[in-house]
């Protein structure tokens, strides 16, 4: 319908119908994050969202906090903005979850923002209201939620903006993972009310500089989000089946510590110090599993 009747009326936040659908998605989360469509900014990818938020919150030489174990994209985007990265401790306990992250208090005054991934990639750790590290400092929180719909050992992944109501929270997500449509290139930044009050006007200006998100694809967002639960159910069944296979293989390795993660789509088992890690990884490949070494995520331990 859009292609036949389209009229290009650019909006610096994104197409109204798309933003309404995204706001509706957050209202259905547990707990509900009730936001206006004015709290939503449509972008082309979460990588673009990170870049916009670094432009919004930082100047060259400023610092942001990131988890010790993290996806390499942070480093590349931060370097592109000449922003320093300070790491807070995020060590897996060997059972598919993480110990409560810890931050040195000396870092608080230097940080302009905190990066949080929930569910965390690759440990599956879910940040919630009892996450002490989120209570430190008063800087904005940028939370990447691209795996939020894929839960395994937990009922739901809470949107942090509903828990930290007096602190600016930017939620990043999109249809790449949630709907299996990485080529459609639509993502968003959803602000809780505190973030909207402080930052929406400036973020509107920055997003208006590029307007990268495709309007024909934006017009499909309401329909895509309505159909998304069907796709997520298929993925969840696939994850559960994969976990059963992985448990059989890893169960035969007496020295490997692991447990299914609370959420996400990966296991993060620990290989004991002194064990033949390369041999272990090769044996998993021989069994048909896909593996990444921990150093892909800045983890240099066992």
Q: How would you describe the overall organization of this protein?
A:
The protein is of the alpha/beta class and 302 residues long. Helices cover 34% and strands 12% of the residues. It has a seven-stranded mixed β-sheet with strand order 1-7-6-5-4-2-3, with helices on both faces. It is globular, with a radius of gyration of 20 Å. Mean pLDDT is 88; it is low at 94-99.
Query: What is the CA–CA distance across the termini?
Result: 54 Å
- What is the averaged pLDDT score? 88
Helical percentage: 25-40%
* Sheet with the most strands: spatial strand order: 1-7-6-5-4-2-3
Number of helices: 9
Q: What does the main sheet amount to?
A: 7 strands, mixed
Order of helices and strands: HHEHEHEEEEHEHHHH
Task: Give descriptors for this structure.
34% helix; 7-stranded mixed sheet; 9 helices; alpha/beta; 302 residues
Topology:
Blueprint: H1 2-5, H2 16-27, E1 40-43, H3 46-57, E2 63-67, H4 73-80, E3 84-88, E4 111-117, E5 141-144, E6 169-174, H5 175-178, E7 187-191, H6 193-210, H7 215-218, H8 221-251, H9 277-286
Parallel strand pairs: 2-3, 2-4, 4-5, 5-6
Antiparallel strand pairs: 1-7, 6-7
Summarize the structure.
The chain is an alpha/beta fold and 302 residues long. The chain contains 9 helices and 7 strands; from the N terminus they run ααβαβαββββαβαααα. Strands 1-7-6-5-4-2-3 form a 7-stranded mixed sheet, sandwiched between helices.
